[in-house]
Amino acid sequence: MSKILSTIYPIADFLYLLQLEEYESKRYFNTIKRFWWRRNIQKRGKLVYTKRINITLALALPFCITMPPFTPLWIWLSNSVLTPYFERIKLNIQKNAAIHFNKYGKNTKVIAIAGSYGKTTVKNYIYEFVRYNYKTQIIPGNINTPTGIANWLLNNFDHSSELLIVEVDTYFVGEIKRSLRITPPDIALLTNVGDQHLERLGSKSNLKKALLEIFDYAKPNAIKICDKKTNLAYALKVAKILNIPNDIIKDTITKLKKPDRRGDVKIINKFKVIDQSYNISGDTAKYGVDNAVKLAKLDKKGLIVITAGIPELGEENKYANKKLGKYLVKKVHKIILLKSILYTEVINNSNKFILANNLNDAWKILEEYDPKKYLILLQPELNDLYYE
């Protein structure tokens, strides 16, 4: 019965698309044009029934049942109606968190990290360097939006903490400003200005403006860092500022590990794999390929790359997928190209390309190759928004 209802009323599928588009009505509206008559969309992920999804479902359901062909539209309208309500809730949470931290975090130094990429790695490295000398809290994982940071603080902040390490991200100019109103930093660090989220921000100029808020809204006497080249160099700079002893720094360096799926090396199906599957941009794709080529040469192996292309390209880097395809052909032995909606931009007439429908198919193709002879670079499969 549920399968029949899903075919007639694909409500869960379109709520899932809304969730993937992070409840942005404009982006969702553009997305549903491609998916209107599609069914069984949830293949690489699943809908999470959050409070917002449940309220949106309750509002849209009567219309979806009455006029099912317009289900995507009813969900869009429901979300549009509810967005101001949820925005007010988010702003109230942020305001309460700012009051809470101002009251209980007066003796806590804040280290805030922004940048197109490398934020989580730098955050984790800094924590490893400082945690033996300071009572330190780190906002974990990918909690890097104003509301995410606010919720974490209200539920987890230890008033006796001496250091708090925060990662901040942005989809629009003003978002980092909101985060730093909650936790204004004593040390503000910008890893880089790359090319991620350009489709959302519109231009490299807007991206730079958004990221530079890390300095604009830091404390007046904050230490500002943006002149280093590597993630480790940034972390070492902060360790020196905080007077971490050299013996602890040297010992910690030997134990540092990259966060999962940010270029860490692992064994998958007997292959040595460089896992770069967390996210990707034009900059990080090229950097990842260059590093993989070096490692493959050290191991005296050929290099095979699994990729689905680069998403969220703005007008300024719209040819990045074409450049990626050409770069891969020059650098690697084989490219297993997942058939996302981006694959036609990546592929060219080289015989190095092998097409696969999904990541599982890619691993089946690799059964024909010897793990002793090839190193694998795994780039993101991308989510269901990027497949027909």
UniProtKB/TrEMBL annotation:
The keyword Oxidoreductase is annotated on this UniProt entry: no
Keywords noted in UniProt: ATP-binding, Ligase, Membrane, Nucleotide-binding, Transmembrane, Transmembrane helix
GO function term, MF aspect, one: acid-amino acid ligase activity
UniProt cross-references to InterPro entries, sorted A to Z: Mur-like_cat_sf, Mur_ligase_C_dom_sf, Mur_ligase_cen, MurCDEF_CellWall_CoF430Synth
Residue stretches spanning the membrane: 53-77
Domain Mur ligase central: 113-236
Protein name as annotated: UDP-N-acetylmuramoyl-tripeptide-D-alanyl-D-alanine ligase
Organism whose genome encodes this protein: Candidatus Woesebacteria bacterium GW2011_GWB1_43_14
